[in-house]
Amino acid sequence: MTPAERAAVQAHLRKLFSNPRIQVTAPDRPKGSVELKIGNEFIGTVHRDAEDGDVSYAVQIVVLAEDLQDND
């Protein structure tokens, strides 16, 4: 995913969720997943799909069971 694509996805997610703290960051290693964060907290990944000439972006959010225990 190009820097321009990351910036566009980030702007869209910030507007969609009314949250300016959302960040879409480049992977640490080549061919790694683009990370989705709120502040410094990793919450998931963003994947680019360009199959059949149509480009889309899929967001996968991760919820760890240990994080759910904090809400009890």
Describe this structure in words.
This protein is an alpha+beta fold and 72 residues long. The protein has one domain. It is 25% helix and 33% strand. The chain contains 2 helices and 4 strands, in the order αββββα. It has helices spanning 3-16, 65-68; strands at residues 22-25, 34-38, 41-49, 56-61. It has a 4-stranded antiparallel beta sheet. The model has no long low-confidence stretch (mean pLDDT 92).
Concise summary:
The protein has two helices and four strands. By secondary structure, it is an alpha+beta fold. Strands 1-2-3-4 form a four-stranded antiparallel sheet.
User: How do the helices and strands follow one another from N- to C-terminus?
Assistant: HEEEEH
Task: Give the oligomer, counting copies of the same chain as homo and different chains as hetero.
Answer: single chain
Count up the helices: 2
Strand line-up across the major sheet: 1-2-3-4
